[in-house]
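Honest question from a wet-lab person: if I give you the sequences of every part of a complex, can you actually get the arrangement of the whole thing, not just the pieces? Trying it with mine:
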Amino acid sequence: MLSDDICNVWQAQGSGMAPLTLEELRKKGNEFHSTIGWRNFREYLVTALLVPYFGRCAWVTPLPLMRVGNILMIGGLLYMAYQLHRRAAASDSPADLGWNTCLAFHRAELERQRDALASVWRWYLGPLMPGLAVLMGAGCIAGFRHSALAGMLSLMVVGVVALALRWMGRVNRKAAAGIQRQIDALG
Amino acid sequence: MEGNSQDERYLEAAAEYGAALHRLASGYEADPDKRRDLLQELHLALWRSLASFDGRCSLRTWVYRVAHNAATSYVIGQRRSRTSAWLSLEEVAAVADPYEGERAADRRHSVDRLLALIQQLKPLDRQVILSYLEGLDAAATAEITGISPGNVATKVHRIKILLAQQFQEGVRNAER
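Yes, you can. This is the full assembly:
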């Protein structure tokens, strides 16, 4: 019977590779944790560098509105770092790979991606928005006080940033809708 | 104690299913170097997962679930950088060239073409065809994948038709 033949051909393939020793597995396991740790460290490092920067800006600026904007940025960055820490701690459970059927696991993976896209504004970019808006508003006011041209240039920067954010939001929504379609197709 | 038990289970699983893991990795990654990396990832995921194995399902079910789930995670990640879409069994049957099978004159060619076909499939269809090729019955495939046994049987029926279209001549020649 043909289907038996093709199964025999399939199963007759040799592995051609020596299995990993337990020592190699332990080493790879440690490397895996180091990689995750390094990824998290980079995220925290950005916060650790930006918080003093905005702190210094808040300290030296003569404009009260600019000071408020910088302090809001610090608050947003700290909230973002807290959320990263919380989410990194919640992930990575190797047992899930064995407890879940393939269908359940695939659905959970897609839902996790969809939710990450949907919530990115709430916890990643969203907390920075008040500070960014106040800073840009303060920049426009300062620009118009200096000259009409500087004010107009500041407004243009605000417009470009607003368009970029809107575009990012649209791309995110489109990607999340695509993932939702894949979830629906799983039945 | 737990570490020893985890190591022993892993050695048992690797001895019994090592070759199957290798074949499974080839169903998820075409590039030989990346396939080697994927296979190591599968072994690592299996070893790590076995710390939580408590016998609620068979070791075979656990091994296949871990391997398919880790490989699915891998292809979902890889897919972001690729433009080609995955196809269902029905779509593959519609676009495949049935006469190509006649030109598949040897065993190696048959396996390569089979891999090319599998690597186009959506994860669930891929899991069912790989389970079928490994000789697992519908009940075992259903327990691993979470699809109902009836649905597995339907998919296996389609797989048999597809394989018959694609490999009739190639496999016959390979067996001579």
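Two things worth pointing out. The two ends of chain B are 52 Å apart (CA to CA). Chain B touches chain A through 58 residues (CB under 8 Å).
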